[in-house]
Amino acid sequence: MKVAKLYSFNDIRIEDVPVPEVGPHEALIKTRACGICSGDVMPWYIEKKAPLVLGHEPAGEIVETGSEVSSFKKGDRVFTHHHAPCFRCRFCRRGDYVQCETWKESCIIPGGVSEYILVPRVNLENDTIHIPENMGFEDAALIEPAACVLKGLKRARIRQGDTVLVIGLGVMGMINIMAARHLGADRIIGADMIKYRLDKAREFGADDLVDVSAISLFDGVREATRGEMAELVIVGPNSADAMMQGLRCVSPGGQALFFTPAKPGETLVIDPNKLYFSDINIITSYSCGPSDTADACEMIGKGIVSAEKVVTHRFPLEKTEEAFRLTSLPCESLKAMIVFNQAGGAL
């Protein structure tokens, strides 16, 4: 079978590897679609994992199950998460699934941009879900990124009537806009410097836009809110500077959600009394867990987020590097999806 393997940020190869053998408690998926994650095009983040088969947003069809598998069968259409928790440790009992050691150590084999994926027992049992009949594979491949968004909004305790500022209008910013509206945001402000993305944000429900190439973020938000600023500020760019700018735009009693990590070595210098006396909270949100993927599947099933809306480019596996490069550039694109030939390779 063919896979797309990254050796460095500028070295992605299409290789032939054996189809994994299926153990008694495992399943083999024939991949139908897999998104390219915007987080995977941060060089410092992806290269520390190299070499690796790219992709962790897959959806596909089960073609083989182990002898002890009873919850899934051949022909089932599924989404599987690349990590899965144990459900037993202290972190899992609190719902902090991403801190679970089993979650951190688990994986799909060899990765998402692969003609076939082996789903180990813990992933199969603890975070693989059936795709509804009315949901296509491309929609299902959005479950993982949508789940990351929903987890962040839950952690930030978004409320009915909130004014929400979304900084950075790539695909995750767009999903944040759609999900925030779904969860009750009254006013949504989108901020970016690329006209294409600003226009798309308006199409997806943003009430106000701040073009940061023409006006400072703070001034733009102040004008849009008549000085009230935003109860929730979602910071998308992986930049400490963006985080600091976002904090300036939080209204008293509000929250800043750091949706992406900063670059290694960057630091924040914060006046703690400004946070304290204004009752401003900083919230972080990393990845997602099983409850989030279930909620994301439901949201996508309702059409709130869909491939039709956000997938702007589709590529075959052989052109994964082109999809990767496109995702890394601030251009007229949102989501790049790897789609697989329905005939595919032989088992």
Question: Can you tell me about this structure?
Answer:
There is one protein chain. This protein has 347 residues and is of the alpha/beta class. It folds into two domains: 2-147 and 288-339, Alpha-Beta Complex (Quinone Oxidoreductase, Chain A, domain 1), CATH 3.90.180; 157-284, Rossmann fold, CATH 3.40.50. 31% of the residues lie in helices and 25% in strands. It has 14 helices and 16 strands. It has helices at residues 43-47, 90-94, 101-105, 121-126, 137-140, 143-155, 171-182, 195-203, 217-225, 240-248, 272-278, 290-301, 307-310, 320-328, and strands at 2-8, 11-16, 27-35, 52-53, 58-65, 77-80, 116-119, 128-130, 163-167, 187-192, 208-211, 230-235, 250-258, 281-284, 311-315, 335-339. Strands 3, 5, 6, 7, 8, 15 and 16 form a seven-stranded mixed β-sheet that branches. Strands 11-10-9-12-13-14 form a six-stranded parallel β-sheet, with helices on both faces. The protein is globular, with a radius of gyration of 20 Å. Residues 343-347 have low confidence and may be disordered.
Can you tell me the overall shape? globular
Order of helices and strands: EEEHEEEHHEHEHHEHEHEHEHEHEHHEHE
**Computed structural class:** alpha/beta
- Compute the number of strand runs: 16
Question: Helical stretch count?
Answer: 14
CATH class of the largest domain: Alpha Beta
Q: Which residues form runs of ≥5 with pLDDT under 50?
A: 343-347
CATH superfamily of the largest domain: Medium-chain alcohol dehydrogenases, catalytic domain
* Helicity range: 25-40%
CATH-derived topology of the largest domain: Quinone Oxidoreductase, Chain A, domain 1
